[in-house]
Design a protein that fits this description.
This protein is α+β, with helices and mostly antiparallel strands. 30% of the residues lie in helices and 32% in strands. The strands form three sheets. Strands 1, 2, 3, 4, 5, 6, 7, 8, 9, 10, 11, 12 and 13 form a 13-stranded mixed beta sheet that branches. Strands 15-18-17 form a three-stranded mixed beta sheet, with helices on one face. A two-stranded antiparallel sheet has the order 14-16.
Length: 314
């Protein structure tokens, strides 16, 4: 630390920013604190010499032991006041952290996106999903905010855990591969772990946590989190642009189409209530083409409204 700055600090002529810098420097190490005390002693000695008039200089040799003790006590008192002042400033000055620049990515219907974050974490975002994340991770934890569905391949860093924040749960990981799906409107949430380990924390009840092991998933069902094993990886092949479904109810499949293509589908054909279907298709094929393929295995017709926001299945 520059001696001139320290002397301004001792003389109380330093700016607020300079005082804060000195306090932070003194608190950084024991060596810095010792240097601060040494400089303060030297500063006080200079003050004492400057305070003596020229006439008294000639008689400076005629000092007594008590006077030396009194001057030493002055210096000790000054050092004590300095230490107390520095401690007060350090404890009471609010050190503001500069705001972190954030990015936001929004994936349109029928599309998907792949990005690599500043820490090397690779993320796939499904259609109609969005994620907010910092330009660079410089905090204790690496936090991102997700709406929709995403697949994470997290770069491992024990000292800086990776946290995916959703409206329902926070997901804490160190290094792993997992899939997250959330739908605020329908109060849906699921997390599927393929490799590593993740910890789920309920935002409503933070004391409730769930630890997942590889090839298990947690889903929000009927007001509680249910843990089950992963039996089929097809549900997570969407990052390859595939829609895979096996023995799924027709209505449930239409709900997936609604999320994927951001369109409303109204089923008016009651005969489809118990119909289950299986298959694989590409998202890029479009919902109309997929419905035409499904027509080959069961009887129904479909049409769109005038502004193409609703599909009616009859």
């Amino acid at each position: 630390m520059e001696r001139e700055l320290l002397y301004r600090f001792f003389a109380r002529t330093a700016s607020f920013e300079e005082e804060e810098a000195v306090c932070n420097w003194a608190n950084a190490s024991e060596d810095n604190r010792e240097e601060l005390i040494r400089e303060r002693k030297y500063f006080d000695i200079l003050l004492l010499h400057q305070a003596k008039s020229p006439e008294k200089t000639s008689s400076a040799r005629r000092f007594s032991l008590p006077s030396v003790i009194r001057e030493s006590m002055k210096i000790a008192a000054a050092i004590s006041i300095l230490a107390a002042s520095a401690l007060y400033i350090y404890n009471n000055v609010e050190i503001t952290t500069p705001p972190v620049a954030m990015n936001k990515i929004v994936v349109p219907p029928g599309q998907r996106a792949n990005i690599t974050l500043s820490d090397g974490t690779n993320v796939w975002l499904n259609a109609c999903s969005e994620m907010t994340y910092p330009v660079s991770f410089n905090q204790k934890s690496r936090n991102v905010f997700l709406k929709g569905e995403a697949y994470f391949d997290v770069s491992k860093n024990i000292e800086h855990p990776f946290i995916v924040q959703t409206n329902e749960c926070n997901i804490k990981v160190l290094g792993t591969k997992f899939n997250v799906q959330t739908n605020e409107q329908d109060n849906e949430f699921s997390a599927a772990l393929l490799e590593g380990s993740i910890e789920l924390t309920d935002k409503i009840n933070p004391e409730h946590t769930i630890q997942l092991s590889p090839m298990t998933k947690a889903e929000w069902k009927n007001g509680e989190m249910v843990v089950d094993s992963i039996r089929n990886l097809d549900d997570y092949r969407w990052k390859k642009g595939l829609l895979c479904f096996e023995n799924i109810r027709f209505a449930e499949l239409m709900e997936r189409f609604e999320r994927t293509y951001d369109i409303r589908i109204v089923i008016q054909n009651n005969s489809l209530n118990d119909y289950k279907c299986s298959g694989k298709c590409r998202v890029s094929d479009g919902v109309d083409f997929i419905l035409q393929v499904l027509q080959r295995s069961t009887r129904f017709t479909f049409s769109r409204n005038d502004d193409n926001t609703i599909i009616y299945i009859k």
